[in-house]
Design a protein that fits this description.
α10 runs parallel beside α11. A hairpin with a 2-residue loop joins β10 and β11. It is globular and about 65 Å long. By secondary structure, the chain is an alpha/beta fold.
Length: 480
Amino acid sequence: MSQLQNYHMTPEEFRRYGRLVIDWIADYYENVESYPVLSQVEPGQIQAMLPLAPPQKGEEFEDILKDVERIIMPGITHWQSPNFFAYFPANTSGPSILGDLLASGLGIQGMLWATSPACTELETRVLDWMADLIALPAKFKSTGSGGGVIQDSASSAVLTALLAARERATSFQFNEQGGTNLTVYTSTQAHSSVEKGVKVAGYGRKNLRLIDVDSNFAMRPDLLKQQIESDIKEGYKPAFVAATIGTTSSNGIDPIRAIGEICQRYGIWLHVDAAMAGTAAILPEYHYLQDGLELADSYAFNPHKWMFTNFDCDCFFVADRETLIQTLSILPEYLRNQATETGAVFDYRDWQIPLGRRFRSLKLWFVLRSYGVEGLQYHIRQHIQLAQEFAHWIEADPRFILVMPPPLNLVCFRHRSGDVFTQRLLKKLNQGGKLYLTHTVLNGLYTLRMSIGQTNTQVHHVAQAWSLIQSAVAELEAEL
């Protein structure tokens, strides 16, 4: 055996160290509540513990794992803590971790059907499962004119949709000629990825129109229609509308049917971003969220937010896959193969911006098979019920204002004493390390967000959070 080969980890070493890592992860989940949810380190503290250069000689794996505890763990914000109520959840679960581990072990490159047929065909079938599970119109399935593909995030999904809409609006001439008078529309509450996508796709920030919202922070269709008609009169060509089911700040739900009817009238691509809230449509009682989707051209939601599947995993669906493929397909000689040329297979490289792709459908398949529909429904329903109960506690406390009735699992509230007090309250809660909340600004007022959706969050975690909030308020009031 050559000296070079001796540097590799042997299968037997992999077994031994792999067991150590699995045990470490299992121990972490057993003890995750013992860590401060929000990392308490100062800027630069982690780098100060890291050497300026890599080791010249390989180190023992046990020493590397010890340094995970010593160096890395203090700088971790524990998204998998059941006391994590910030942003939106970024969940995982045992089946998802193991599916991802298996995908890493296989280490395949799934850019073409030919490079690993199972990677492509499992993804096609699992995305069809997902379309049925969340009550999408049949046109979004691979058995029709559309289909689904796993992107890394909702940001990539909206950028991909923007590109396809741009080419459709210009009869596929934009890439040839450049320049644009195309306009894009979304609400003032939409995710920042729309603005970034507009810049990356070449529409130009000046061609993005932000449409105002109603009292429930949902886009107003009447204002959308007015803006579209005004732009047409000014010589612009409306090309893309991004509607949202579950905005980041408030979980606001845009009226998809009314927006879709406007888009149909003016020939505009409608993309629907349901990044977090789309998971709720697993429940039959929330199928109403999908009303009007038959009018949409594309739709995306993230199982990595609320469906116990680790990042990254965005399910992106299109009604017309040929437009998407024509927009993104480039076939150099070194990728030509018989299967592709028959037209009988999907090459998902043509459905996304990068060429390469990982075997992400494997972890989603593990989750769906391990939980089953009933298991997913049970936990999602529980999270929504916990949020509704927390909202009732807020309403019953005269010190707080419930900004809006929570449509799903996000509760937005603030203290009646105003912005400064509410800001101090958030800082005090997060410094304590026993929970983590984030904020937004709604109607110009500083607002706290309680997002309930972490995989292992149960009623006693929410009750403890409420107790901590009340105690923190009492302490702050005593300081005044």
